[in-house]
Amino acid sequence: MKVEYFEDEGNSKLLNDGFVSIKVDREVRPDVDKAILIKVKEVCEIKKDMLVKNGTFAIEQLSEALSTSSGSGKLTNGVSNEALRLC
């Protein structure tokens, strides 16, 4: 991280409260840099997969609920016909 990030009081407080900040010189320790980047990418992929899975589940549940409401001729809690049509 650049020095500017640590000069900002808000950033430095956030970093100091939740993390142990270290500086790795990529040219001196490319092995450490590579290991950190690999781990960050793994965590990001896990988070991405969770978001996609949960988002898909939520859409399926909403669509099912709206289809049930539509079939009965009743729309629940003020759901508009336009919202139902979009699903």
TrEMBL record:
Pfam families: Thioredox_DsbH (PF03190)
Spermatogenesis-associated protein 20-like TRX domain mapped to chain residues: 1-39
Disordered: region residues: 68-87
Entry GO terms, CC: chloroplast
Domain of life according to the entry: Eukaryota
InterPro entries per record: Ssp411, Ssp411-like_TRX
Signal peptide stretch: none
UniProt feature, compositional bias: Polar residues: 68-80
Full protein name: Spermatogenesis-associated protein 20-like TRX domain-containing protein
Protein's organism: Pisum sativum
Taxonomic placement: Eukaryota, Viridiplantae, Streptophyta, Embryophyta, Tracheophyta
